[in-house]
């Protein structure tokens, strides 16, 4: 509920509050309240997935595997939303929904890496083997995703995406003071919303697992 209330404030503030009239991007700077917050939430949830996969490999508790896959699905939702809002922003800024940019390409490849995680789970029937393989793959997927979106764009030195040398939205001198009263609540709101969605996914998958066990024992 708190996350929803914060996001309602963010939506209202993002559409109505005054923002600086910057060259080129102009009013589309408002997208920072949505695009950046969604990507922050995605990274937070994918980090949770990594932690639960490590916990599974240590204790082999099915609940940790369920939490890991629930977190990955949630992360993919926010990753897709981040890509969509980014494409809209790119169209207004660069005149195209997609440009050949190392950071954009890295984000797309990173998303495909996590989609392969779901494909891997769907290709293995035996539950314990599926959980072990998925947990190991999830560790490599997180490392590769970090490399694709953070390290390679900096090494290429050819990215035009903002934030290649850091995160301009979090730098004191880059974010207009008028926008901070919406931007920082936006980060908190999207994080809370992402965690809530993760909990919903987990409860649904836990219910399905309990129903399957009940049918097997019946």
Description:
By secondary structure, the protein is an all-alpha fold. The longest helix is centred in the last third of the chain and has 41 residues, at 177-217. It is built from 6 helices and no strands. Helix 3 (62-94) packs antiparallel against helix 4 (102-123) and helix 3 runs antiparallel to helix 6.
Question: What is this structure's SSE topology?
Answer:
Layout lengths: L1 H15 L15 H28 L2 H33 L7 H22 L3 H30 L20 H41 L1
Helix pairs in contact: 1-6, 2-3, 2-5, 2-6, 3-4, 3-6, 4-5
Taken as a percent bin, the fraction of beta residues is under 5%
- Mean pLDDT over all positions: 85
Tally of alpha and pi helices = 6
Low-confidence stretches: 166-173
Tell how many strands the DSSP assignment holds: 0
User: Helix/strand/pairing class, anyone?
Assistant: mainly alpha
Proportion in helices: over 70%
Overall geometry comes to globular
Distance between the termini: 38 Å
Topology pattern, helix = H, strand = E:
HHHHHH
The main β sheet shows up as:
none
